[in-house]
Amino acid sequence: MTIKEKLAVHAAEVEEFLGTCLKDRNIPQGLLESMEYSLLAGGKRLRPVLVLVWAKMLGMDSKAVMPFAASLELIHSYSLVHDDLPAMDDDDLRRGKPSNHKKFGEATAILAGDGLLTEAFGLMSRADAPAANVLRAMSIMSDAAGAGGMVGGQAVDMEYTGRDGVTLDELRTMHAMKTGALIFSACKCGAVLAATNEAAEEDIKRAEEYGRLIGVAFQIVDDVLDVVGDEQALGKPVGSDEEKGKTTYPSLIGLEESKALASKYVDEAVELLEPYSGEEADFLSELAQYIVDRVY
Amino acid sequence: MTIKEKLAVHAAEVEEFLGTCLKDRNIPQGLLESMEYSLLAGGKRLRPVLVLVWAKMLGMDSKAVMPFAASLELIHSYSLVHDDLPAMDDDDLRRGKPSNHKKFGEATAILAGDGLLTEAFGLMSRADAPAANVLRAMSIMSDAAGAGGMVGGQAVDMEYTGRDGVTLDELRTMHAMKTGALIFSACKCGAVLAATNEAAEEDIKRAEEYGRLIGVAFQIVDDVLDVVGDEQALGKPVGSDEEKGKTTYPSLIGLEESKALASKYVDEAVELLEPYSGEEADFLSELAQYIVDRVY
């Protein structure tokens, strides 16, 4: 199987869980429709898959961590709904369909996002892992998704948009918060949930570092594809980031150096997997490689 | 001390914790200002106090549960920020000051709300109580605050606004979701956090029931005060609920019967406290009574 096919198999497991997780939760019908519209709109389900595979590689049953893994997709999904709002990025389309507020109205979109975010923490709390591990993972996720992570990154991104003179360091920090935090925390939480003894701290460190590296690589590649024009593959709505006045890696260090940087990070991520073997280790290695392959 | 004074003493403890809980959390400055603007805008801090007092009455140290207790104020605060948005209730004022989006802009207000909600679950995860108790309480809070609770209640409230023929049952269910869920869950979570053996399930049930009763009574009294005109005491911004086309208890069952109903619920709540004695039991009894005293 190619990595794309392997990813699709994992994504299908996540998809099945996502399709049922909001049922029988006493959610008013109109609000439920709006939440499921965005949650079930497809996507690679990369974040949940990272939780599942890291946890499984370290000895944890996939079913046990599925609620926790799926919660990351609820968080990712809510962030897209709120980011698309007129007061934010004002996007009418998301993955080729009307964005949530275009379909259901702004008020419902705001509430759907709030509902998805809140439900995410409910799902996490019901993961079938040692209670202390679950609590630690929830604290990590709150940091990653919150005002010091993803939400803060979005605030900084809006502040930078249209501003000249954004430096490489500023760009890196902004992306680390906005998109990187959720990706490295997915890997880290997989390892935290599976932890059984003190030696697990080494695994947790490697998971976090692997996640940080592929997160940055992923962002650089997104910027590169934005320039070389692979809008379709990314499912981007309208207008490139450059057109929107956003600073990107290619605009700061050029296209070739951007590609080289992404490759370097991916190589480092793959090296971190050396202590591990088997199906999951192969998957994580191929996944890292797949990120940069998209631009070559 | 009067109950108002006792409440103020507890509120001051909560206030002190709230004043520091967002510091050193890596939150971008502008976003932090917006979050603290709403979080530290005063208020009775009723929800955190209910967590603290129920936990303490059942043998738990207040300091240990403070992060969890305070998280309810972050949730309450985020809900007010989002409810005030132009697409929602469109309120320019909150407690006599410009609402969050009037002061910081809509985008920042949306993100400040998202940040407060996410941080709330981080605080909960750091409560110093048995891990299994904390997880159970977090699951309860997610249900209470989410799309099947507070967020869903807001969606239903907007659907009912301006609609004729809302029944008493519909009104009751909407309020139970929108405001009741957070109040009864505050009491319930205090008892859950303090639970040490199976007998605690009886305490948890009583805490939940007490919370449900004072929650309804509180809502009825709010509706009554809206009619008899105590805008100042409630800190309501502009226009009564009636003027906004909202169905209220007095509009459905009349002013006198509304008052009688609130009194009945408060009496039932006080009865539930019979097995308990001491400072905390007295406080909870006086607090329930205080709710209806406001209308007499």
What report would you give on this structure?
The structure is a homodimer of 296-residue chains. With 296 residues, chain A is mainly alpha-helical. Helices cover 71% and strands 1% of the residues of chain A. Chain A is built from 14 helices and 2 strands; from the N terminus they run H-H-H-H-E-E-H-H-H-H-H-H-H-H-H-H. In chain A, strands 1-2 form a two-stranded antiparallel ribbon. In chain A, helix 3 (46-57) runs antiparallel to helix 4. The radius of gyration of chain A is 18 Å and the shape is globular. Chains A and B meet through helix 2, helix 6, helix 7 and helix 8 of A and helix 2, helix 6, helix 7 and helix 8 of B.
Strand content of chain A: under 5%
Shape of chain A: globular
- Oligomeric form of this entry? homodimer
For the terminal residues of chain A, how far apart are their CA atoms?
Answer: 20 Å
- Specify which chain pair forms the largest interface: A-B, 54 and 53 residues
Give me the secondary-structure category of chain A: mainly alpha
**How many helices of chain A in DSSP terms?**
14
List unreliable stretches of 5+ residues of chain A: 231-238
Q: What would the average pLDDT of chain A be, to the nearest integer?
A: 93
Radius of gyration of chain A: 18 Å
Spatial arrangement of strands, main beta sheet of chain A: 1-2
How many distinct beta strands of chain A?
Answer: 2
Largest sheet of chain A: 2 strands, antiparallel
**From N to C, what is the helix and strand string of chain A?**
HHHHEEHHHHHHHHHH
Helix content of chain A: over 70%
